[in-house]
Amino acid sequence: MEIIELTAVQLAQKIRSRELSSKEVVNYYAERIRSLDGEINAFITQSFDIALKQAEEVDKKIAKSEEVAPYAGVPIGIKDLIVTKGLRTTCASKILENFIPPYDGTVARKVKENGLPIMGKLNMDEFAMGSSNENSYFGPVKNPWDLQRVPGGSSGGSAAAVAAGEVPWALGSDTGGSIRQPASFCGIVGLKPTYGLVSRYGLVAFASSLDQIGPMTRNVEDAAALLEIIAGHDPFDATSLDVDLPKFTEEIKKDVKDLKIAVIKELSGEGIDEGILNCFNNTLKKLEDAGVIIEEISLPSTSYALSAYYLIAPAEASSNLARYDGVRYGYRIENAENMLELYMKSRSEGFGDEVKRRIMLGTYALSAGYYEAFYGKALKARRLIRQEYERAFETYDLLVSPTTPTVAFKLGEKVSDPLKMYLSDVCTVSANLAGLPSASVPCGLSEGFPVGFQIIGPALSDHLVLRLSKAVEDATQFELKPLKELKK
Amino acid sequence: MSLEKLLKEKGYEAVIGLEIHTELQTNSKMFCGCPARVFGLEPNTAVCPICLGLPGTLPVPNQKAVEWTVKIALALNCKINEFSQFHRKNYFYPDMPKNYQISQYDYPIGVNGYLEIETSKGQKRIRIHRVHLEEDTGKLVHVGRTGRISEAEYSLIDFNRAGVPLVEIVTEADIETPEEAKVFMQTLRSVLLTLEVSDCNMEEGSLRCDANVSIRPKGSTSFGTKTEIKNLNSFRALEKGLEYEIKRQLETVLSGKKVVQETRHWDDANKRTVTLRTKEEAHDYRYFPEPDMVPMEISTQIVEKIRSELPELPFEKKKRFIREYSIKEKDAGILVSDKEMAEFFEEAARLSNNPQAVANIILSELLYHLNESDVWFSDIRITPKHISDLVNLLESGKISSKIAKEVFAEAFKTGKNPEEIVRERGLEQISDDTMLESIIYEVLNENPQAVKDFKEGKKQAIGFLVGQVMKKTQGKANPQMVNEKILEILSNN
Questions:
Q1: Distance from the B92 Cα atom to the nearest Cα atom in chain A, whole angstroms
Q2: Is A344 a domain residue?
């Protein structure tokens, strides 16, 4: 079997059994990135040298029969919002174009400790703000299914890299759908874990109360494996949960029979493309055949989710991004007359349009006299949404909907209309507002493009979300075509 | 004319509220593991990615700092909020690495307390509005001829102080005079020192004070327009700055103009306040709950545990000193104003049967020598036992109070026991009647004019004669006794 055909878990097995060396795998993927990424543009920074060194270390240990981590030697790509010591971390922004972090975040540290060679830092929408990956200072990422189309965003580089077979797996981050929407557009599996399950220490903040790092993989088993690597309590993150974790790779093997799920009515009808609904409903039928009990539920407050999200996330962002001011690091204009000019010009020139739009939105929402009407109201809506989900989970194990209202759209199609762009997140944002685990699993094609099946579970039911994801995967037998079609 | 008189004459009164910041001397900073005691360190050596606010870093609250803030709030008789929360205060300034300060807003740790103070006019209760916890900022160093921002060629930033736990204490506008403000700060300082949470060094900035001040016609219930004064970095600056500002406001109002709401800077060199920024330039801080942290729940059990561990506070100690040692109220007030002084006194008072005499020596001789040699209790050689011995020597009439001063000076310098000093130097008082009488006769014979004056009714001449006897005995005679003897001899002849 060719390396490209092996999942991350399979690669790990072959590396451990010395059928393959980690170095061979890294070299293989490096070669593939070299030949494909000129067009895909999934990487902002490539770090093959570092990856090779890490691979050699793993190989050496295995040669000496020393203990290695379960998935040691399998290369990975990391969204460029996750801080990596000594390796440029740009957040796809001009303002951090040359920022080399002096420390490793918790997830980066875990990736290294687990012996996963880092192939490079993946493209994204600037500071994770966007749904098409067109807001990157380093240029848009192309969808491997069709280079005229967007890969989704903001983790577009991560999704495209996995779908194109440039890396076996990748890390993304999800604030309002930034893992699930691109996963859906590119035909891969993406999981946004329960808020607090994965440390945010070292994840450059967009909206602190919503952000969560998660796995983006070819299949559900890889997602479970990668989650095992990155999840866990972290004393460096005060919002990190201190709980015992199930073994996700075992959990996905369990049966879904008698699992009681409900389709979210508001997210599965009006406003969703017909082709997507067909795929979604077909999948439901197959799940029913597998013994899953399926009903429908109305969650009226989800209609406020998008509005609440686009107040809360920009409000937090306006504060989180205040530190980029040209004083200590990052982009700084030359010859400022005074402090104020240094701030204003460095920020005006350093940030892209969408980032500036959201900083302004958020600043306004928090301003004296407007706070209650905007931010305060949004917090109330958020509370309602959370309560509605909690009530729903008294009856149902999981809730489902399509991940996106459309399949991957064309590059440039929505850039001039931010509101239309924001609507791409309509199905995904409420899980972030409620802090719930949510996955997107490919469930078929519409007009030849992948459709994502979204699963949302109660807090800390990540194992259950993954279990149903596995059932969807088994039922649909989705094929990630670009892996074979894109030749290196 | 004194400010007080001036205000009274014009029918005005001042209304003052204080905002105090004190740095906590915890082991580590508020949200990271860097050391919190940073004064005097090389610039930017006590920093890490977290307190530098580097992308991706997160704050984790220092539990000790939270507990200490509860402790301060309890000592100031505050109610502790069971639910407390950090907020972000957003504004751009280069000494703030994140361009927001993690502070508290509508759920501070402590609210509605008070502190009793003792002024020249008696006891007064100053209400405490709130006690909250936040992080300190870095420090700008302006490089140029004067070191002032307006004349700087460029500025450097030292982030050592960024993230040091900082407690803010806000009073109600209960303070009426600059003296009250000063006494409040002194009392608060002694409370904080007793709690051992801060070294409260105003020069080094670990205790800082801003004042809000306004004036209004006496008896009015509404407030006048206030100004905020910054840079009041010593007790003296606080008092002088307020005096200046109240006078300035009074003159403004009396000349028919209006006081402008603004922030003013106390210029200590020129002894005046100057405009720093006006209301129009005030920030909209856009406070919102800190999303990187979960709200704090401070349970009743924790509060009660901290309360039970509170040390004896100066105000309570003062009451106890008056009760147990029967010393003057004023003396007790001064003794408890410093923890080390109070301990020193108490140890000496326990060894002596005259605590008031012990207090007298500490408050006169000891304070004088401490001042002169610029040291404090922890650095001295004289012990509480020495003080009580000295009191015994005085009480038993073995030495005069004049000699006591000498003995004290020697003991302070050398750490020798007073009894030993008296013995070695032969300083015991002459209490032998015949010996004293012979010296007195000698003096009377040598000073016939004074004797004549006395007999002619100039009673004050006796003072001169007593002085001569004291001189001849090198101070070792008991002046009271000498006086009586001279009177006896002269009235018999």
A1: 8
A2: yes
Asked whether residue A58 falls in the same domain as residue A165, the answer is yes
Residues B41 and B98 in one domain: yes
B412 pLDDT above the threshold of 80: yes
- Let me know whether B207 and B113 are in one domain: yes
Q: Is A178 a catalytic residue?
A: yes
Do A237 and B58 count as a contact with CB atoms less than 8 A apart?
A: yes
Distance of alpha carbon A336 from the chain centroid: 38
* Both structure tokens of A438: 């949510």
Please count the structural domains in chain B.
3
Domain housing B467:
433-492
Residue where one domain finishes, among candidates A348, A363, A378: A378
Backbone angles phi, psi at A440, to 5 degrees: -120, 130
Which one of B394, B425, B456 terminates a domain?
B425
- Of the listed A131, A132, A178, A184, which one is catalytic? A178
CA-CA-CA-CA torsion sign (A49, A55, A61, A63): negative
Same domain, B247 and B392: no
Nearest by CB: A235 against B60, B99, B294: B60
Domain count, chain A: 2
**Which of A47, A132, A154, A301 is labelled catalytic?**
A154
Distance (Å, rounded) from C-alpha B43 to C-alpha A118?
Answer: 36
Residues B376 and B472 both lie in one domain: no
Rounded Cα–Cα distance for residues B215 and B217 (Å): 7
User: What tens digit of pLDDT does each residue of A345-391 get?
Assistant: 999 999 999 999 999 999 999 999 999 999 999 999 999 999 999 99
B152 reaches A (C-beta below 8 A):
no
The predicted model scores a pTM of 0.89
* B270, B318: one domain: no
* Rounded Cα distance, B164 and B28, in Å: 8
| Most confident listed range (A190-199, B269-278, B385-394, B463-472) | A190-199
Model confidence at A419, in pLDDT bands (50, 70, 90)?
Answer: confident
Q: Could you give the ipTM of this predicted complex? A: 0.96
A318 and A209 inside one domain: no
- What are the chain B neighbours of A105 within 8 Å (beta carbons)? 56
What is the H or E stretch that residue B143 is in? strand B139-144
Looking at the structure, tell me whether residues B294 and B343 fall in a common domain.
Answer: no
Q: What CA–CA distance (Å, rounded) separates B74 from A89?
A: 46
B138 touching A (Cβ < 8 Å): no
Residues whose CB is less than 8 angstroms from the CB of residue B283 and which lie 6 or more positions away in sequence, other chains included: B91
**Listed residues A350, A378, A406: the one ending a domain:** A378
Q: Are residues B176 and B32 in the same domain?
A: yes
pLDDT at B318: 92
CA-to-CA distance for B368 and B366, rounded, in angstroms?
5
Is the N-terminal amide bond of A21 cis, ω within 30° of 0?
no
Residues B215 and B246 reside in one and the same domain: yes
∠ Cα A467 A470 A473 (to 5°): 155
**Residues of A contacting chain B (CB within 8 angstroms):** 82-83, 89, 91, 96, 99, 101-103, 105, 200-205, 207-209, 235-239, 315-316, 318-319, 322-323, 325, 327-329, 339, 343, 363, 366-368, 371, 375
How wide is the angle at C-alpha A473 spanned by C-alphas A472 and A476, nearest 5°? Answer: 80
In this predicted model, what pLDDT tens digit does every residue of A116-127 receive, in sequence order?
A: 999 999 999 999
Indicate the DSSP class of residue B365. Answer: I
Single out the residue in B275, B306, B337 at which a domain terminates: B306
Which chain A positions have a beta carbon within 8 Å of B292's beta carbon?
205, 208, 238-239
The domain that holds A153 is classified in CATH as 3.90.1300.10
Domain carrying residue A91: 3-255+471-485
Q: Does A105 sit within 8 Å of B56, measured CB to CB?
A: yes
A451 domain-assigned: no
CB atoms within 10 A of CB A368: 10
Q: Are B87 and B285 in contact (CB under 8 A)?
A: no
